[in-house]
Amino acid sequence: MAAMEFLPVLFMIAGVVLVAGATLFVSSLLRPSNPYAAKNMPYECGMDAAGEAAGGRLRVQFFMLAILLVVFDVETMFLFPWAVVLKEIGLVGYVEMFVFMLLLLVGFAYAWLKGALEWEA
């Protein structure tokens, strides 16, 4: 492939960056800017923060579980392309996928042993 074949793609990227930058610049000039204390206060669901949220503490378990779910879902998505080309990749690809699965299992065991899957009330 010649570099000239990518010229339309580069023009499109440049156009998108130019339009996005111009939009942000013009909106920064036109928008009202009147911050005050009540507007800058943190809130949750339109109500004042109360309980643990008022002190700035947050539950890490929610985030740990979400991150673990995303990681394992993304790693599981690698199994589908592997299954489609299983006959073409041969024994080497088969062994590599089982090494990948072993690493996934080790990560799951580590998260389990560290208590990342425990839910404390």
Describe this structure in words.
- The structure is a single chain.
- By secondary structure, this protein is mainly alpha-helical.
- The chain has a domain at 58-120: Up-down Bundle (Methane Monooxygenase Hydroxylase, Chain G, domain 1).
- Helices cover 66% and strands 3% of the residues.
- It has helices at residues 7-30, 37-40, 60-77, 79-84, 86-113, and strands spanning 43-44, 47-48.
- A two-stranded antiparallel sheet has the order 1-2.
- A hairpin with a 2-residue loop joins strand 1 and strand 2.
- The longest helix has 28 residues, at 86-113.
Helix share bin? 55-70%
The helix/strand series, from N terminus to C terminus, equals: HHEEHHH
Radius of gyration: 25 Å
Spatial order of the strands forming the largest sheet: 1-2
Structural class, please?
A: mainly alpha
Give the distance, in angstroms, between the N- and C-terminal Cα atoms. Answer: 59 Å
- The CATH C-level name of one domain is Mainly Alpha
Mind telling me the CATH superfamily name of one domain?
NADH:ubiquinone/plastoquinone oxidoreductase, chain 3
Q: Helix count?
A: 5
Instruction: Specify the overall morphology.
Output: flat
Any guess at the CATH architecture of one domain?
A: Up-down Bundle
The CATH topology of one domain comes to Methane Monooxygenase Hydroxylase, Chain G, domain 1
Low-confidence stretches: none
InterPro entries: NAD(P)H_OxRDtase_bac/plastid, NADH_UbQ/plastoQ_OxRdtase_su3, NDAH_ubi_oxred_su3_sf
Subcellular location: Cell membrane; Membrane
Enzyme class: translocase
Family: Belongs to the complex I subunit 3 family.
